Amino acid sequence: MDLTKEQYEIINSTGNIKINAVAGSGKTTTIIEYAKARPQSSKILYLVFNKSAKIDAKKKFAEQGLYNVVIETAHSLAYRYIVSRSSYKIKLQGSYRTYEIAEILKLKGNGEKHTEYIFANHINKFMSYFCNSDKQKVQELDYSKIVTDPEAEAFVSKYYDFIEKQTRLFLSKMDKGEIEITHDFYIKKFQLANLKLDYDFILFDEGQDASAVMLDVFFKQKATKVIVGDTHQQIYSWRFAVNSLEKASFKSLNLSTSFRFSQNIANLAIDILNWKKIIGNDAEYKITGKGVHKGVKSKAIIARTNLGLLLKAIEYITEKKEIKNIYFEGNINSYIYADEGTSLYDVLNLYNNKRSLIKDELIKRMKDIEELEEYIEKTEDAQLRMLVEIVIEYGNKIPKIIKEIKEKHVGNDDKEHAEMIFSTVHRCKGMEYDSIQIVNDFITEEKLEKLTRDKKNDIDIAKLNEEINLLYVTVTRARSSVYIPDTLIPANFVPSEQIHIIKTAIENDKQVSLANEPKPIVIGKLNQNIVPKAYSYEQVRAEHKEAYMPWTTEQDDELTVMFCEGVSIKAMAKNFGRTRGAIRSRINKLELGDLYG
């Protein structure tokens, strides 16, 4: 096996090291060779990101006869030391749903709509925040710091002491075994136990997305420590992940040669990373691409968001009716259900006032879609918000859209037969495809410059950094070719035979269709016998006088001022005589969230 100079330096190193490895740089091969170079009597622990990575690593290490290496995920390791040695019972779904927390804690409303569920939602997130942190006590954290929506922030501020107290109470119930425990909880117990693991070497993979709780366990061990990752692939901060490569004060080594893609794709990745200079990061980036083009067998369309991916999937199967087999990474169902189990159909049935068809306990308790939107505003529930956006976008077309997609969807065993694979960037982390097409829903260089132009803006640098990472991760999934919208091409980038630029349509702001309603999309015979939306044009206009009317410059200015003053969506909708959905759509159109936070 021909190894690079960088790989040999890692294999022959001594002491604690951190390895910054670019996508496709052969880090698993390097880790195996590192383990082979250690004495056979050495006890080695290799921590990997998830179960599929564990299965794959076990096979590869066994093939090399490395039976002295124990391979675990954070969860399997913590389970072995905590759960298997106790009488704890694990929650079957892994975590608690909002209504379950409300029932267990016997939470009561305070006169406002669904206050008990808003409390429960924040308690759930506070528990997750604590369990993924390196702190010893709940009181050492300030949960309000991770709440950003103005309405949610105001609610948490008002009831902070109560939310914190109930968070501690719920954790106490799990600790005493009164209720089933969550996966997050037993990892936290593992950290708090301060166990000394009996290993000579501990190898920690995907370090850029490590939780602070596992990082604390790792750093406290006496073993020689090796942490591997790619600083620019950190995309899970919303799950409270931290970039351990930046926190580890170890000798720094690199794997900068990618065997996945050529220099053409490497150059595009470098130019995207150079956008970080716009937000104040002046580091130089080095990626050498030595991948060899071998034709195209697997193709993927990758999006930033679930909604962006669904829109593209609909467009794709509409234009390419001859396509018979498609595949969604993570299964199609993972795109139409929130983590708590709420279905897209539950939200649609609420939208249509078909309450008898709603299965989700939380959605059942909502009077209408407006109440659900109020709940979302006070809880920052991003997944529920996504489901609402899809329902507002497609309404009663959804069942037929999903049916047509499912009819073409192949199972996991037949993935290689898919003519096109669809995925969000988060779900295809660690994957690679011969050819990728990028959906036009990522941050652009122009938008970054616009956000940073006014130094008075309170810019979230960490968030923008992660947005750049998302596009970098997407580009580096490709082995042979990249199809990328012209809006995402870095300035002065020189196209090549492997980088194909997609021309995007220029949106005309002066052409305003009925309010912000999308143009109808026809899929096969989808336009025939469609059930009308729950609320007709006339019904909406009767309740919201300005609905479906073009926005004026004066109204945009007024909306901007109200947004900056922290006026609620509900109050803005009432002021302008429009629906909340229309207000959110206009806020997004004017990019007020990005400009003024």
Descriptive report:
- The structure is a single chain.
- It is built from 25 helices and 16 strands.
- The strands form four sheets. A six-stranded parallel sheet has the order 3-2-4-6-1-8. A six-stranded parallel sheet has the order 12-13-11-14-15-16.
- The relative contact order is 0.10.
- Mean pLDDT is 86; it is low at 507-538.
List keywords for this structure.
globular; 12% strand; 25 helices; 597 residues; alpha/beta; six-stranded parallel sheet; 42% helix
List the helices and strands and how they pair.
Blueprint: H1 5-11, E1 17-21, H2 27-36, E2 44-48, H3 51-63, E3 69-73, H4 74-83, H5 98-104, H6 115-131, H7 150-158, H8 160-175, H9 183-192, E4 201-204, E5 210-211, H10 212-219, E6 224-229, E7 241-242, H11 244-247, E8 251-255, E9 257-258, H12 263-273, E10 288-289, E11 299-303, H13 306-319, E12 326-328, H14 344-351, H15 361-364, H16 369-379, H17 382-394, H18 398-408, E13 420-424, E14 433-438, H19 445-453, H20 461-475, E15 478-485, E16 499-502, H21 537-543, H22 553-564, H23 569-576, H24 580-589, H25 592-596
Parallel strand pairs: 1-6, 1-8, 2-3, 2-4, 4-6, 9-10, 11-13, 11-14, 12-13, 14-15, 15-16
Antiparallel strand pairs: 5-7
